[in-house]
Design brief:
heterodimer; A: 84 residues; alpha+beta; Ubiquitin-like (UB roll); five-stranded mixed sheet; 19% helix; globular; B: 139 residues; Aldehyde Oxidoreductase, domain 3; five-stranded antiparallel sheet; four-stranded mixed sheet; 3 helices; 9 strands
Chain lengths: 84, 139
């Protein structure tokens, strides 16, 4: 199956664009996508553990099973007003 | 009202969205682009967002607020793109029958935005730039 992966903020530069397409085995989970991205984009690899994943605009855990044509977003740590 | 815009923010319509005859208090929060961060002079900020999801997550924050403070009304509007120092990045307004709930609910909403709404900012200084590190989202 094939999924679309959207990237934001600093991740865009590391992956060379705001969107990449990834082919996965049937039944692949979010964590399989994570592994695949780490292999395909070595510059993303050190950041993957700090990311959250959203599938079709909903946060999902790494156990979530993906489907063909899913839109996945890599959500880096959210930054806006860290100080209180 | 829970949305993102590229245009300069006017607090007026956000306030009017929550104002009603039963609200004795309206608390308004403005997030402003500051001119320095950790000793570095900021030239401007660039906000990136996952716009459609950010609007959904803002609405969820609104639902959380209503679950905790049922008598409140809340509206939030966030800006994205390039913002100059002194400009408004976020307007949040909460109304309630009395001021205590309005202050508390507004504080809660702003804190939650920073935790779950997918918006990121890049600081551009005189001598460089960086996407800021923030809270990892608890998936």
């Amino acid at each position: 199956m094939r999924v679309r992966v959207r990237l934001f903020a600093g991740l865009t530069e590391l992956a060379g664009g705001p969107e990449v397409v990834v082919d996965l085995e049937e039944g692949a989970k979010v964590r399989d996508l994570e592994d695949q991205l780490g292999r395909k984009y070595p510059r993303l690899k050190p950041l993957l553990a700090s990311l959250a994943f959203a599938v079709d605009e909903e946060y999902k855990t790494r156990d979530y099973a993906l489907h063909n044509n899913d839109e996945i977003a890599l959500i880096p740590p959210i930054s806006g007003g860290r100080d209180v | 009202m829970f949305d993102l815009t590229e245009d300069p923010l006017d607090p007026g319509p956000v306030v009017e969205d929550v104002r009603h005859p039963g609200s004795g208090a309206v608390v308004v929060f403005l997030g402003i682009v500051r001119d320095e961060d950790h000793g570095r002079r900021v030239r401007y900020l660039e906000y990136d967002s996952y716009r459609s999801m950010a609007e959904k997550e803002m609405r969820k924050v609104g639902e959380e607020v209503l679950a905790r403070w049922p008598a409140t009304r809340i509206a939030m509007r966030h800006r994205f793109g390039r913002l100059e120092v002194g400009e408004t990045a976020l307007v949040a307004a909460v109304s309630a029958p009395h001021r205590g709930d309005a202050f508390e609910a507004c504080r809660y909403a702003i804190d939650r935005i920073k935790e779950i709404v997918p918006i990121w900012k890049k600081e551009v200084w005189e001598d460089g730039e960086a996407w800021l590190e923030g809270h990892p989202v608890q998936g």
